[in-house]
Specification:
- The complex is a heterodimer of chains A (228) and B (374).
- Chain A is flat, with a radius of gyration of 25 Å.
- Chain A is mainly alpha-helical and 228 residues long.
- Chain A has seven helices and four strands.
- In chain A, the strands form two sheets. Chain A has a two-stranded antiparallel sheet. A two-stranded antiparallel ribbon of chain A has the order 3-4.
- The N and C termini of chain A lie far apart (50 Å).
- Among the domains of chain A are: 47 residues, no CATH class; 95 residues, Cytochrome c-like domain (Cytochrome Bc1 Complex, Chain D, domain 2).
- Helices cover 42% and strands 7% of the residues of chain A.
- Chain B has two domains: 50 residues; 308 residues, Purple Acid Phosphatase, chain A, domain 2.
- In chain B, the strands form two sheets. In chain B, strands 1, 2, 3, 4, 11, 12 and 13 form a seven-stranded mixed sheet that branches. Chain B has a six-stranded mixed sheet with strand order 5-6-7-8-10-9, with no helix packed on it.
- The chains are: A mainly alpha (228), B alpha/beta (374).
Chain lengths: 228, 374
């Protein structure tokens, strides 16, 4: 009981600290900001060069340009340099992804440890980040070049929406390999054989993303390791 | 090893060879006899049904009123890349051509079911046309979406002519449709020809539109069938199934009901399609549908919408190259219905007799596989 109330207090303190940080960070001098035309990095008397917070993207604007226009110009310039910035929405439009589990029932609950109270923001973050990894996997799954195929073959050609991949049945004894295989072993086997590419290292972000996508797509299936 | 002790593989290949040699010059009665014999041999050796070829046999009425069946072969969905990129799919198509050239007697013609190319490139289509020239029997070709959406059919038409046509053969009327017409999703998005092609080429790509036959071809079909008596044996070829199976993979034709309505007044209609890369059987009223194998790769069965009459092919083994792929043969009977043999490479052939769909699945049900798709 005492523990819980202490945690609750700690949680409040945490929020207070965050709030004061945000407050003190805002007027920090010399910080280049999108909507801050004073953050000039050079330029003549008539025009001012404004630097984006990435420290690289800059635009020249006439003195007296409203802040929103400066921000808009910077964003346009950044999007021009980063044509893939919308990759996640684009990939999700092309290839439907099964949604990650909904944890909104936890909002407002106290877990009784250092992470404190679960907020709507926490739940949204978990979902967004988890689905992002699976979406990255979807991109690799559907792209022969990213898979390193030498013959233009990608996973989706045999497994649309990751059908017939059966991640829920691993680990299992693969007769044809003569040993127990994990899902990643089968992914690599496919990359080496039908796809004719090079096997990926276990820690390769592409392989991790592929695993995430394949597991995501079989949402709701009962785990039955060893099943043939 | 003594000749009395043969390996499983040797026995299997011998039974298979026996089965095919017995398939030569068949009439209906001996066809059944051979099937029964082969089934017996297979059952004795612990195997399941021994059919994996896809001859489609249609029986037709001769000019003198004498009815006789005839056969044609079916090859589909080869998805060729250019020669320097991918030899795997080229070898598979060449294997199908060899299969058909080895048929004795030769089929009356060979029908190609669409998706000759993977990305609609002129060199892919030319390569396919060149390989298909090795066929001994005459060739008829249908278009698939992979052939079309790079240059909107320009190269395909230059090689094979118009995609919508009809012809008569031994009293049977054949119609070939372009069922892969998509609504313009590319202009508003500013997609290049290659991006449009790649979007359509992705089976699970949700940006593309559903397939349709379209009003223009439906009018053409009505005119083409005008004045034909309802008893005319009618075979329709479409790349996608002319019914609605699974929208998310375009196992689907958006105006399927309208096309079916045009075909409804005929006593019996066969619709043969490619695109789904799997054995697929359906019947809607007077229309009997059969889907054929791909030479390139098998698709999984759709998670929903599978027709009740479909007897699935076995779940393909990825360790067995070309498993789940193959070609087919069709024997058309005088009543307008057809017997199908799916020639599954590396497996026993599967025969689907016309009595199976005619009896709504009560008679001659093909053997169900041990391992189904799930």
């Amino acid at each position: 009981m005492g523990n819980t109330s202490m945690m609750r207090r700690l949680g409040l303190i945490g929020i207070g600290v965050l709030a004061s940080c945000a407050h003190s960070a805002a007027p920090a001098p010399g910080t280049p900001g999108a909507a801050d035309p004073n953050a000039a990095a050079g330029g003549s008397a008539d025009s001012t060069e404004v630097l984006l917070c990435d420290g690289q993207t800059k635009v020249s604007v006439a003195a007296g340009t409203p802040g929103t226009a400066v921000a808009g110009a910077l964003m346009t310039e950044w999007l021009r340099k980063n044509p893939n910035s919308n990759w996640e929405a684009e990939e999700r439009e092309r290839h439907t992804l099964q949604p990650a589990a909904d944890n909104s029932a936890l909002i407002g609950q106290v877990q009784g440890q250092t992470y404190g109270q679960v907020t709507a923001q926490d739940v949204a973050l978990w979902k967004a980040e988890t689905e992002r990894v699976a979406t990255a996997g979807s991109e690799v799954f559907h792209n022969a070049d990213q898979l390193g195929s030498t013959i233009g073959v990608s996973c989706d050609m045999c497994h649309p929406h990751a059908a017939n991949t059966h991640p829920e049945t691993y680990p299992k004894y693969q007769n044809q390999l003569g040993r127990v295989a994990l899902l990643r072993d089968m992914i690599n086997w496919c990359i080496q054989h039908p796809v004719r590419g090079k096997a990926m290292e276990s820690e390769d972000p592409k392989l991790r993303a592929l695993e995430a996508y394949i597991l995501a797509q079989r949402k709701g299936k009962v785990l039955e390791y060893g099943k043939h | 090893m003594s000749p009395r002790h043969k390996s499983i593989e040797t026995k299997h290949m011998q039974e298979r060879a026996q089965f095919f040699s017995a398939l030569k010059s068949l009439d209906r009665r001996s066809f059944l006899k051979v099937s029964a014999a082969a089934f017996g041999a297979a059952a004795a050796s612990g195997l399941v049904t021994p059919h994996a070829f896809q001859p489609v046999k249609v029986y037709a009425q001769g000019a003198g009123g004498k009815q006789e069946p005839f056969s044609f072969a079916y090859i589909s969905d080869s998805h060729l890349y250019k020669r320097t990129l991918n030899d795997r799919f080229i070898n598979a198509l060449m294997r199908a051509v060899d299969d058909v050239n080895a048929m004795d007697p030769q089929p009356d013609f060979v029908f190609y079911g669409g998706d000759l190319a993977q990305l609609g490139q002129p060199e892919e289509l030319e390569l396919g046309a060149q390989i298909l020239k090795n066929l001994k029997a005459p060739l008829r070709v249908m278009v698939g979406e992979h052939d079309w959406y790079y240059d909107m059919g320009e190269k395909w038409r230059a090689l094979f002519g118009e995609p919508t046509y009809s012809f008569d053969h031994k009293g049977v009327h054949f119609v070939v449709l372009n069922s892969v017409v998509e609504k313009d999703f590319w202009t508003a998005r500013g997609l290049s020809a290659m991006d449009r092609m790649k979007t359509v080429a992705g089976l699970d790509n949700g940006v593309q539109s559903p397939f349709s036959v379209g009003a223009e071809q439906r009018t053409w079909l009505e005119n083409d069938l005008k004045g034909k008596p309802a008893t005319t044996p009618l075979v329709v070829f479409s790349h996608s199934p002319l019914y609605k199976l699974y929208r998310n993979w375009n196992f689907w034709t958006d105006d399927a009901e309208e096309v079916q309505a045009i075909l409804r007044r005929f006593r019996q209609v066969c619709v043969f399609h490619g695109h789904t890369h799997q054995m697929l059987t359906n019947r809607i009223g007077n229309i009997h549908f059969q889907g054929f194998l791909s030479t390139a790769w098998p698709w999984p069965y759709a998670p929903q919408g599978l027709p009740e009459l479909t007897v699935q092919m076995a779940r393909p083994d990825p360790f067995n190259p070309n498993d789940g792929c193959g070609d087919g043969a069709i024997t058309v009977h005088p009543d307008g219905l057809a017997d199908i043999v799916h020639n599954l490479w590396n497996r026993n052939p599967v025969t689907i007799l016309r009595t199976y769909t005619a009896s709504n699945g009560k008679k001659d049900k093909p053997e169900a596989p041990l391992r189904r798709s799930y």
